[in-house]
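Morning F.,

Quick status update on the modeling queue. The single chain you submitted on Monday has been processed. Sequence for confirmation:
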Amino acid sequence: MMFGTGEVFNYFQCPKCWCLQIAQIPADPARYYPSDSCRFAPAPLRSYKSRVTNFIKRPRYRFAVLNRGILGGLLYLLFPNRDLRKLSYAGLKEDSRILDVGCRAGELLYRLRNVGLTHLLGIDPTIDSDIQYENGLQVLRKFLHEMEPAWDLVMFHASLEHMSDQFAALADAHRLLDDAGTCLVRIPIVSSQAWEHYGVHWVQLNAPRHLYLHSVRSFTLVAEKAGFRVDRVLYDSTAFQFWGSEQVVRKIPLKSERSWLVDPSRSIFSRNEIRDFSRRAELLNRAARGDQAAFYLKKA
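Structure tokens below.
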């Protein structure tokens, strides 16, 4: 239902750990990642072309990631950025070595580079070719197992669920990390109110692109098997779990012109409804029932 093809895929769920997984991985997964997807080309990053905008963003983002700067702290209070704030829990410094796995065009790393972090690298085997940005950031067309140690942070943002061998990916991350490093994994969570309520209409199922959807228990098991311990779990679900799933129920593809993602003015939802979905998502996060979480892993 991302593109509305209407194809059907079978999943099964473990009765012990509640991991939900596809019964058969498609023979040609690339079919479900169209060439116009942002996984295949650099993001335009238009929002960074204004000097005034960059002047405001830099101290705000710097505070979000490094907890530094009075001006940045004030700006962050007015304009928070939760995605960047999650990185602060990894204890980053300006010279931290950061590897982003499955980063597509590397937009998150681009922000970090503009904040002042310089030891950054993105890898994604699905991009057409290596990307070199004007600010020095590189994104390489490489697999995780090709990389060499040592990194302070290895992170997977909405990428691990697309991988066919998640244990191997986490074992590689363990190999690449410095002993005091952190592995940050952000994934959809099946031990959530959204999965229980919407079932096969849950938007984060995203069949057949999401191959394994973990519960907190099942992800903890695979992380421990790879040599990690779970240091922290931070729930960060959004309104997407509601409006996206309601669109699936109504057979409105995520990429449809009627989708809130594509054109809010043509959506079936009002802005008040979206704000209500956001409030409900925050309540679920506080109750550890949101449909998305960030796991902070340390070497056991």
